[in-house]
Amino acid sequence: MNRLRHTKKIVQKHKSRGMRTALAAAVLMTAALSGCSGNAEEPAPSSPAAGGQAGEGSIPADKSFKIKVMSWQGPQEQYGPAYNAAFDEYMKLHPNVKIEHLYQPLANNGYDKLLDTQFVSHEAPDAMQLNKYSMRKYADQDYLALLDGPMQQLSAYNDSAARWVDTFAGGEKGFTTLKSFNKYGAITSIPVDGGPGANPVQPFYYNKDMFDKAGIAELPETWAELIEACRKLEAAGFDALAADGNRFMQWITTYVGNQLEPGHVPGLFEEKYRIPELKGDMDAIALLTGKYKADNPVEAAELAIIKDFSQYWQDGWAAVNEDQAKQAFLLGKTAMYMSGNWDYSYFEQNVKGFAFGIIPFPVITKETTPFASEMLPVAGDQQSYGWSVNKDLENDPDKLKVVIDLFQFLTGKETQKKMSDAGVFVPVVSGVSTPDKVKPFIATANNKIPTVDIFSGPLFALANDNKAILQVYLTTDEDTAGTMERLHQQAATNARKKASDALDAEGGVPNQIEILQQSLDKQKADNAPAAVVQSTTDSLNVAKLKLELYKQYAEPLLK
Amino acid sequence: MAVQSAARGQRKKTGRIGRAAGYGFVLPAVLFTVLFEYYPMLDGIFHSFYRWNGSTVEKFVGLDNFAEIFRDGVFWTSVKNMLFFLFFQIVLMIPTIAACIVLFRIKNSKMQYVYRILLCVPMIIPGIVTMLLWQFMYNPQYGFLNQLLDVLGLQQLQQLWLGDPALAKWCLIFIGFPWIGTIAALIYLAGLQNVDGSVWDAAAIDGAGPVKKALFIELPLLKGQFKLNLVTVLAGTVTGYGLQLVVTNGGPGFATLVPGLYMYQRAFGSGTSDYGYASAVGLILFVIALAISAISIKYIRSEE
Amino acid sequence: MDRIEQDVRWGTPASVRLRKPARPRAWGELAKHAFMILVCLLLLYPFALMLQMSVKDTEQIMYEFFRISSPYHFDNYARAWSEVGPMIKNSVVMAGGSALISIFITAAAGYGFGKLKFPGKEPLYWIVFAKMMLPGVMNLIPSFVLAWKLGLLNSYWAVILFAVGGAQPFWVFVMRTFVAGQPQELFDSAKVDGAGEARIFWHIALPLLRPVLSLSALNVFLGVWNDYIWPLVTIQSFDKRPITTGLAYLSSTHVGDYGPLMAGYVIASVPLFLLFAFGMKQFVQGLTGGAVKL
Predict the structure, then answer these.
(1) In a domain, C20, yes or no
(2) Between residues C76 and C188, which one has the greater pLDDT?
């Protein structure tokens, strides 16, 4: 036992060293990259791409590079080929770079599990597509490179004098959510395709023939109309919707919750804490302090809306996965299926025997619940997923340069235009027109709430078995109060853990503050570009406010 | 004198070589056991007193994990499910015994041999295939069961099977129908063969009926084999979760969740890596399994 | 424990058969056959379904579930083979490697513990032996962490080394018992000839152990072959996956492609079928060897 404890100590030591290197690396990266492009404050005449012409980037030309990138975009789907074409083009531009695009489907949690093992064994790809939850997990475990440095520089593939981060739709503000999702408050993710990320509500694909047979003349625009349509479909003998027990659970709670009482949780706290970066922390503290109770009426309303909807889902939905649900729609067994634009080409090619169309997610009105805000989130105002870069690359600055250059290429206007047309997605950079096919997915007159302001159900968000608990609620006669009690039990336990982790001197917020402070000092000493210093200062201030929040509310309760 | 001491020297030398060789032979086995068996076991016990996520968070929390487990409704649900499975797994040992007795009584030895081989066939199919196959058979839209009911005109009996929380547990029990375990069967058959032939003669003279004969002759003879299989079933059901992991992942809801799977999910589920908590669940299962192992050793030995 | 292993036999010994009571009523015999036939049918029909679905396309499976009619889609097998073939290779390498390494290590230990004398032998033996009584349920997570620290994740070695470790307690126990039961003279005469321990082990102990070796090799092989959870957490690259996790993965990504999936299941069953066909007796003993493990 003693020996074990000793080993622990050594591991611990290594760990804190790891934390410290994080900041050093962030600085290093800035330095390394400033070689290839100037900085925002003083765009030197030779910048974008010193020596080369704009649109070609500048990477070490005398060395050859082999870059591995991984995504869940398979070659059969529409995004995969769009990416592959862009990679091919990049390789043509830079014959000394070889890009290998690995494909790993998300199904059965396979993508995350693969990365889990690859990261710990340091065999992970150089860059990988991540959603914000996985991004948080890996960033917090120090597996991802912090990208603020390069983001504050000019992009080699953009002719304007804007910093890379400003070329994205929504600019630096568009990264607020992503930044709040890791302990450093840093950008750790480069958006390339505006899939589910640019689009905070997924629409329904629907079977036009079934809608006709059921006598639905007009497509539903409000939630009440959607339920009415479901009733008609059911009366005509059709299952209205193909649901699944996993991904759909996540979506439906998010998209219904999005529309209810914005600012609901922040309203429980003083003005100064009400910033988007602290949303998750306010959720936890609201639960811990009992400000947010197990019988919260807004979350109860959310659950009741979903339960009412669930009677129109296909039989046995709780036991199927998203692919099986998709099959049910494809084979004409259900009238609707919720999915994003990334399935568009698949349905175009594979739907046989009926015509399909798209219904944007309906707006919930006061007719359905008094808590309805009667607004949908603004499409694409927040980046919410993208590609992260393996931290191990920091040991190979040349290769890192190439990877960054590749992503600057992918987010250049020209490439974005080609990719979004081929992949049918929303371009992530501003100044590129959205393909017509994707418009029905994003544009409704009701998209009005800024994404950072939307309501999240803290009970659902913090309970680790949330999907299973929801399944029980929807498939048995368990009532809303009992379900919320169950969610609350788990969520409160997790909130307590989260608070105690945050206050932990070694791995918590105090440690982050220390790291950020050191990072800032170093940046100042090294005369880093003002924008970089500013972004570190911002992160530091958020971290300080976070600590204050936890100290004020959580600390007294944990003692 | 000189010869003697030389001989002694020789003996000493071979003794030393023998000794070194002895270690050479056994050390690999000892090292493998210690490194890949004991170390993980002790490490697991150790970490069940930690809040630990495998990387950045590692904090001693004493008995907090256990306290949390006791308050954790999901854990108790999984224990209830485990007891359900345990009960039926024990009851469902009967078909195998019955089949073995019938098989053993068949006089045509060629046919007996053929049946034995047929009973072994499921073992050449990888277990995973059987599970996936059954998962398909339960599919409500195009699975075998609902298609069969359709053909028989019994549409009103069609079910959601695995999609119905009330039915999912029963569906898992039904996997493996008609519940003939190949290994258990082989063990029972070996037991029956081992019996002194004179008991059969005595039975024949008595003119006992087939059921009576089974109850009073064959079953008592199979007691040792039964105990052996029982222990396998007990330990397998308490700690096992492969079936649930593959076929239902514990769902719908928590309908088929068992403690082993809960341990797995808390450690490797999406978005969580609560290794400390999972280790604590593991330690509880470990203690139960250890008790079963201890009791079984005593219980099996006591009668042999 | 030994008793059970040795008594699983094919065919009934003649002595037992003769003494079975003569039952004049033929219908009683008939009933027994009917019962056994029913049991076998129920036991085997899922696999028959699997076979018949493996040559159908999705439409045929959905709309003509119980009929099998042309066109037969044998191309399902070609499609399945391209995916399942590499998995079979992986499974064979991992299961075969584990079996091979573990028999050498356990046999050596069995010989060392059974016939050699050296200080500390008994305590060392007890360390190995005692693990047999300790359940392994909580090993999963720490083993995973250990595999990672040793840099084994995503390689065959993660499976092989842990399988070898898991095989030690029981099979060292069996080998030691077996070696200790062999007459001492065999070993002594070789020693007189001046043979070293290594040669004695190789030329005398191993040949003597042959029946136990094949039993143990098969048992370890089957254990790895059917293992799902351990490779699931340690082997994630697609090109290294064994059949267990590979098939589960295919079934979740090729939804609706039932024909090729079933063909894949059939293909994955072939290696054990071959093993069964060529070494029936050993195969069955290997199975029960595992059952006795408890």
Answers:
(1) no
(2) C76
Minimum mean pLDDT range among A177-181, A542-546, B160-164, B238-242: A177-181
Residues belonging to chain A: 559
**What three-state secondary structure class fits B251?**
coil
Interchain pair A141, B141: CB under 8 A? no
Give the span between the Cα atoms of C18 and C41, in whole angstroms.
29
Strands (E), A148-273: 193-194, 204-207, 239-242
Residue of A nearest to C144 (CA): A117
Give CB contacts under 8 A, 24+ apart, made by A413-419.
Answer: A413/A157, A413/A158, A414/A55, A414/A157, A415/A86, A415/A89, A415/A157, A418/A82, A418/A85, A418/A86, A419/A82, A419/A83, A419/A85, A419/A86, A419/A192, A419/A193
B64-302 belongs to which homologous superfamily? Answer: MetI-like (1.10.3720.10)
Q: How far apart are CA A342 and CA A525, in angstroms?
A: 46
- Interchain proximity A319–B252, CB inside 8 Å: yes
The answer to whether B165 contacts A15, with C-beta atoms less than 8 Å apart, is no
Closest-CA residue to A335 (of A196, A440, A201, A212): A212
Mind listing the domains of chain A with CATH numbers? 32-198+382-431 (3.40.190.10), 204-377+446-499 (3.40.190.10)
Residue A366's Cβ-count burial label (10 Å; 0-12, 13-18, 19+) is: exposed
Interface predicted TM-score (ipTM) of this complex, two decimals: 0.82
- Spell out which residues of chain B touch residue A22, defining contact as CB-CB under 8 Å: none
Q: What pLDDT, on the 0 to 100 scale, is given for residue B17?
A: 58
Structural domain span for residue C195: 75-292
Query: Which tens digits make up the pLDDT trace of A367-389?
Result: 999 999 888 887 777 887 899 99
Instruction: List the structure tokens of C228.
Output: 């799902």
Mean pLDDT score of chain A, rounded to an integer?
Answer: 83
Closest CA to A338 of A257, A427, A240: A240
- In DSSP terms, A408 is beta-bridged to none
Beta-strand ranges (E) seen in chain B are 50-52, 58-60
Q: Which of B66, B69, B90, B89 is nearest to B78 (CA)?
A: B69
Q: What's residue C148's pLDDT?
A: 84
Cβ–Cβ < 8 Å for C214, C197: no
Could you read off the pLDDT of A190-213 as tens digits, one per residue? Answer: 999 876 545 567 889 999 999 999
- Residue A388, classed as helix, strand or coil, is strand
* The total number of structural domains that make up chain C: 1
Helix (H) or strand (E) holding A39: none
User: Is A110 in Cβ contact with C249 (below 8 Å)?
Assistant: yes
B90: Cβ contacts below 8 Å, ≥ 6 apart: B230, B233, B234
Residues 6 or more apart whose CB falls under 8 angstroms from that of A220 comprise A226, A228, A229, A359, A362
| Token pair 């497509």: residue | A219
For residues C87 and C72, give the distance between their C-alpha atoms in angstroms, rounded to a whole number.
Answer: 25
Contact A245/B at CB under 8 A: yes
Per-residue exposure over C75-112, b if at least 16 CB sit within 10 Å of its own CB, e if not: ebbebbeebbebbbebbbebbbbbbebbbebbbbbbbb
Contact residues on chain C for A321, CB-CB shorter than 8 A: 252, 255
Q: Which of A35-49, A528-542, B208-222, B271-285 is predicted with the least confidence, judged by mean pLDDT? A: A35-49
Two tokens, residue B123: 């073992």
**What are the C-alpha distances in Å from B24 to residues A94, B12, B18, C112, C209?**
56, 18, 10, 8, 19
Contacts of C48 (CB under 8 A, 6+ apart): none
- Share the mean pLDDT of chain B: 83
Neighbours of chain B (3+ CB pairs under 8 A): A, C
The alpha carbon of residue B253 and the mean position of all alpha carbons in its chain are separated, in whole angstroms, by 25
C61 touching A (Cβ < 8 Å): no
pLDDT at A8 over 70: no
> Do B43 and C146 make contact, defined as CB atoms within 8 angstroms?
yes
Taking only the tens place, the pLDDT of each residue in A22-55 is 444 444 444 444 434 333 333 333 333 333 333 4
